[in-house]
Design goal:
The chain is of the alpha/beta class. The chain has a single domain (17-375), classed as Metallo-beta-lactamase, Chain A. It has helices at 111-120, 138-141, 144-150, 152-157, 189-194, 293-304, 323-336, 349-358, and strands at 17-19, 24-26, 39-40, 42-49, 60-62, 65-68, 89-96, 99-107, 130-133, 160-163, 172-175, 181-185, 198-201, 206-208, 212-214, 231-234, 262-264, 273-277, 281-286, 309-315, 340-344, 371-375. Helix 6 runs parallel beside helix 7 (323-336) and helix 7 crosses helix 8 (349-358). The chain starts with 16 loop residues before the first strand and ends with a strand.
Amino acid sequence: MHRRELLKLGAVVGGALFIGGGERLIRTSVAGAQSAVPVVDRLVMTNVVDNVYDVFARGGKIGDLTVQRHPLPPAGAPGPALLSEHGLAYHLESFRGGERKEILLDFALTGATLLSNYQAVKIDPSRADALILSHGHSDHYGALPDLAGMMSAWSERGITLYAGGQDTFCHRWQTTPDGQRRDGGQLDLAALDARGIQTIMAEQPAVVAGHALTSGHIPRLTDYEVPPAAFKLEAGAVGSGCDPSLHFPAGTMQVETPAGELVQDIFWGEHATAYHVQDRGLVVISSCGHAGIVNSVRHIQAVSGVEKVHAVVGGWHLAPSPPEVIASTVAALKDINPDYLIPMHCTGFPMISAIQQQMPSKLVLPSTGTRVVFGA
């Protein structure tokens, strides 16, 4: 199968792909087997960093969820502060029988915020069994380079980082209406390699740490979930790993773009994360949802073979979307009928308001430091 081809849903294949003249092994994990999708007894998701902290957000028992909110410390109390910023980071702790796994998903915008919050919510990142990076925007990878330099345990174990595609490590830009270019940064893959982090390009669905599932490339099936036109990807030289033709479905790049030119960023390498929780169904976590939250959920259902969706979580990048896109998304989520919707980060007030109006019993409001327990 060519690495740019769309995923054949339900296919069961496996292999490894060498890229870059043998100088570095980029391992493409391919695991679409429905029978291989793990089931966990319980998932504990901590929203370590989010855009907002809401002291009034409802906690306790919400339906069959346990929602633990992080309280404000007493005035003048010592200890690390819980901080919010435009960024996202999760700690995912899952249990199956006597087995326990910890996965870190995304790494906020700044190291200062993420490290302070790890301490505040009492999470030790050195214990992580695996790392997942949803996509190559700095508000999701910002603290990773510094963290990698601090975690000697990661290097000693050769911890694995799951990225959805090579474009995670390409240079990103944003264009403004007046024609200006805003530098979106670039995550240095070689620097992570040097820190002993083993990177897997999970372009197909992959099982992570025996407990979680990443989606691989997400087919774009809806006509209303379109990445913002302002997001651009800088074309690299042939063989750089950032050739533009590598980051689009086969046949969509009609003209090869010279190195240094900008192409539309369709976030072909952005992937979602999911858990199948015993007697509950899927918990789908879309960190930013540039591929579309509906596309993401439908794809996870297809590759897992699990129809029931327990919760849809994360950033869905609907903050800048017009009302008709929000209306279409709400209608599709109603059809999917998850038990809970937990919007975060870039989802935006209009979408959260629409959920509150049309599906109030499903809504769990976001707040930095929140811990949600799914399952028994």
